[in-house]
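Forum: Protein Structure Q&A
Topic: Joint prediction for protein chains with partners

I've read a bunch of threads here and the consensus seems to be that you should model interacting components together rather than docking separate models afterwards. I'd like to see that in practice. Below is the full input, 453 residues plus whatever partners are listed. Could one of the regulars post the assembled result?
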Amino acid sequence: MKTAVVLIAVTAALALQTTLSGLMIGGRIPVNLVLVAVVYIALAYGAVTGMLAGTAAGLAQDALAGSIVGIGGLSKTLVGFLVGVLGAQFIVSQTIPRFVMFVGATLLHEIVFEALYALVEGRAFALQLSAALVQAVVNALVGVIAFYIVEQGPGIVQRRQMRRASFSKRRF
Amino acid sequence: MLDIRKRTGWLFFGVMMAQVILVSAQVQSKSGVRVLELVTFELFSRVERATSSGVSGVRDVWGNYASLRGVRAENEMLRRQLSELQVKLQEEHALAARSQKLQNLMDLRSRAGLPTVAAEVIGGNPNPGMKTLTIDRGSADGVQADMAVVSPGGVVGRIIGQPATHAARVQLLIDRNAAAGALIERTRAGGMVVGLESDPPLRMELVANLADVKDGDNVVASGVDGIYPKGFLIGRVERSERGTGLYRNITVRPAVDFSSVEEVLVVLVPPRPATRDEGVQ
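Posted by a regular:
Agreed with the consensus. Here's the joint model:
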């Protein structure tokens, strides 16, 4: 069940990210949904699952992007593992800790990703900090919303259904 | 059953390494060689270097050990040779010194113009109370009792007792029972030198207070005793002072270093009765 959820989440994130990229050709998408999915899985299921999810998602993302396969995988593996470890150590069930976790994970991912590329390509390390920060905030917002939807979504639907049912009884 | 959840660290490490290798396989270095090959070659070269260093180290250690064994044996041999050479050098030094002494003795012999026979000291003093020595010449060489014994330094003593065939005993001049007629070489003031148990071990007696005797004057044999040939050096005046009676108190430092007498000349002139020499004042 968990594996299926992870696979679905990663696949969905990949598909959505690819779709968004197709809509903004030539521009920089200020969100990394695959990374959001990895962080989410790591927070939800722990270090091992987060790590494996990061590996799979990163490799897939690299393969789809046509870049060097493994760099994204390495970055996301590291992020998934660390987020899972930190999530087990600290209470991250509230919104703000989760937000901070997403921001930190995104910044770490960007740093590692850029550093690895700089290493492989033999160029200087050049991280666009502002863009990274924007992406971190957007990722965090998306992640927090995702958590809210997943955790609160079933209850909201149930309450709406109950409200509709009671309204029908009163009319009829 | 291996539970990977309990091996998170190892799993993480494995996954990371696998991806590093994956990336390395795709990336080329500046020289065009794949990074994976480069890293692999680098790693294996380090292993080879370490192995080579280890082998070289072991070989060096063994070589040094073997050399050390050789060096040890060589060191022992050289030490032995050095000891032998030191002994030989000492022998050579001794031989040279002996040759010099013999040369001095020969010079003395020719200077003295007296019949002499060279003798080697073969024994020391058997009695602490008497200052004597033994030489390797005896009656077979013409040595008789009361013959004078001299050295390049000066008067040594006289033959005492009956000599053996090839040995004789010499009473040193510094023996407390020894005496010799003497005079001050500078002023010809006569007297008698006797041995003492003191320092200096000689005293000149029977020299009048009126005689001119100064410190440092040479004291020579006067020949009046009929034993010691006239003119042979006995010693030097170390201290001369006016005595309370008729005679001066004169101490004499012997000319011969009696502690290192090795070769001597025995004057082969039979003793004659003591006479007053005309040279003595």
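Chain A has six helices and no strands.
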